[in-house]
Amino acid sequence: MTTDSNQPAHRRLRARFVAISWRDLAVSFGPVVLVSIAAIWLAVWLVKPAPPRTVTLSAGPEGSSFWNAAQRYKTILARDGITLNVLTSEGSRQNVERLADEKQNVDLGLVQGGVSQGIDVDGLVSLGSVFYAPISVFYRGARVTKLSDLAGKRIAIGREGSGARALSLTLLKANGIEPGGATTLTAYDGQEAAQALIDGRVDAAMLTGDTATGPTMGKLIRTAGVHLMDFAQADAYTRRFTYLNQLTLPRGVFDLGRNLPAQPVHVISPTVELVARDSLHPALSDLLIEAAKEVHGKANVLQRAGEFPSAQVHEFPISDDAARYYQSGKGFLYRHLPFWIASLADRIVVLLVPIIVVLIPAFRLVPSLYSWRVKSRLYRWYGALIALEREALADDAHTEYRNLRHRLDAIEAAVNRLKIPLAYADQFYVLREHIGFVRHRLDAMNAESNAAGDAPPADGKRGEEVVRGA
């Protein structure tokens, strides 16, 4: 029996046994780490930053219904640490223009229907309708039930930029009345228009939410000789202009003692929408709708309790966040936690998703990948060993014994130089036993061949077949 030092160099065991193969570990971890980084980056990219603490709303003239509503929003939002800057404006038209202009530092606006013609409103979304803003036509003289009856008269339609003016021009045009014709259209609005009507400087005044105040409306209702027009064609207007609604004011709704109005009055009204840029933070969307619900959710002479805010929209698409709110209400976190804590928790949850969905399964896969990497080096030589044995056993093989032995020795030498973790030493030695088994079988087949007088050529070159059959 020969010692190891007398054996050929390629037969000596030079394998390196290590606690762990860092190269295999790096290759196994690499794809997982890359996928995890990509997942976390995507989550961070998708997660919106914390809600801003200051937002700006374009309302209307000071004292108008738009302005008053905005002031109430401001008080409600302050409870959650949000500062609402309220800007005065000429009205709905100017509010839309400000929102459409990215250079303007405006996030929100109160906008009545029918005022955005000619303005590029891409990128603007609605948080829902918040209240009615009826077009109220007050007049002097003989009974008027149609706008066409005002042809040739003096009409106050509101100043430039107001929703009252934009809507008035649209409705008057539908009745054949346009600027430059026989009808005089003046830019009076709000209190100024009411006083001009009382003083007889105009024959009619068309007022709506962004230019009229409650006291102004009440003053006109109680002024002798001034009447509120009953729209006889109200139903036709709502068919022609889909953003309009028909409302009926019952007898005595303004003053029961004086029975004002003395008869039911039909009016037409757009809804006022809370419009925002589509970049508005989702958490603020919920907070604003909640504020609108508190301000506009009660019953009054124009609406039922709970009717507003609503998903009823006309010129602007409802935002995804608002649609979700109207369908299912506030999110779970915002229902049970203070606003800022819920906002933080909401973002943390989104960041945890890739950890739960990607990282945990991925790191559970790492041991399997590591094991496969180590075993694959052993399996590679099993493949070479099987190929060699099949070649030797093939009936039509012409491979010489010495060539096969030389290849087998090369396989053994390569195996003996492998770097193998200690945990896989048993499989390493099993492979070496199998190499020995193939060598023993090859030697036996060679001995049988020699006994039959069919010794291999001495030069070791490829000759005739030396092994036949199994």
Automatic annotation (TrEMBL):
Residues 459-470 have a biased composition (Basic and acidic residues). Residues 449-470 are annotated as: Disordered. InterPro entries: TRAP_TAXI. Keywords: Membrane, Transmembrane, Transmembrane helix. Coiled coil: none annotated. It comes from the Bacteria. Signal peptide: none annotated. The chain crosses the membrane at residues 21-47, 348-370. This is C4-dicarboxylate ABC transporter substrate-binding protein.
